[in-house]
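Hi there, hope your week has been kind to you so far. Would you mind checking whether the tokens look sensible for this chain? I owe you a coffee for this, so here goes:
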Amino acid sequence: MAGPHPIADPAPSDGFLPVQVLDGASTRSFHAYLHIPFCRVRCGYCDFNTYTSTELRGEKQSDFAARMLSEIAFSVKVQQQAQLPARPLASVFFGGGTPTQLPAEDLVSILGQLERSFGFAAGCEITTEANPDDVSKEYLEKLARAGFTRVSIGMQSSVPSVLATLERTHNPVNVATAVALAKSVGLQTSVDLIYGAPGETMDDWVASLESAIELETDHVSAYSLIVEPGTKMARQIKSGLLTEQDPDELADKYELAEAMLSAAGFEWYEVSNWSRGEGARSVHNLAYWRGNDWWGYGPGAHSHIGGVRWWNAKHPSTYAQKVTQGESPAVGRETLDQKTRLEERILLELRIADGISIETIKALNPDANRWISQYIATELIDAASALRGHLVLTLKGRLLADSMVRQLLT
């Protein structure tokens, strides 16, 4: 299970939103994230807010869709009371956990409630994450008929020994089957990869990238493994059972991913994400990186509306109790000041291929030109883009993005 919530203000039980959320609301797109917290087993590296069947304290998976419908109805009331403009959803994302642990009918029911409540913008992207062992053609057909447009499959690796270290239980052969089935019913496909697992060799990573490319999927996410405190893997490393990978080797693996995916026709559009052209980029994830508005439904889900951010109770039983009583399931909230919002824009927008305006950076750090000149000289940013007033990372810059953000924020 995930670590503790951040320290913040209490969240009002009626969900009341301050007037600041109206400022510029009509210029921001609106999105929905639905957190399905159920997993058959918990992987040793996982720090997400997930629960196996023995950890639900009497709450039933079969009741979960009804709980989420209640929260959606509550969110409609809160937005109406705040006098937010009616905005159709530009994207919907079912994440987890493992959304496909629920019957397809449950996901379809939740999606239908969102459409009735908010409507969908033209071309609305509707995604679910999926475990390759969970989905059949019949399951995916039900989703496609209901309006789902995209499925993101947790591949992680194609190498059995790496999957075993990560404690991923799916059969790697089923990844190709799931991708093929999703394509056959008209869904866009994405696969998630993780590199840097203890013991993973460069040859292992090459094999995983080759397998992902052979799938001819529309999108690939490749994340460096982060060993989170409190996880089983963190304890294994601390005890010497596993060994963390060297940062230089992780950088080599990232550069290899860029080379192989680029050669296969993928374009990077965010530090850890590649797509086959702009039409296959994740609209939902871009909404996060660009600071748009989203409502997060479900246990532990985070929301952000106009610089106000809040997060729900983590355990499904606590969440269920609140929503069935007609209360906000949120347990903490913060209102971001202008400085913090600028800091977060730099942190997130610098990571995307579109980059960030230099004027935005200078609004926070008047001394930014000193760093920008240095980044051009050391080839961390694209010089031509910088001359046009935009900061865009080079491949070398992507490897050092976090340290660059720290410098720009000082």
Remarks:
- The chain has a mean pLDDT of 94.
- Residues 338-410 form one domain.
- The first strand starts at residue 30 and ends at 36.
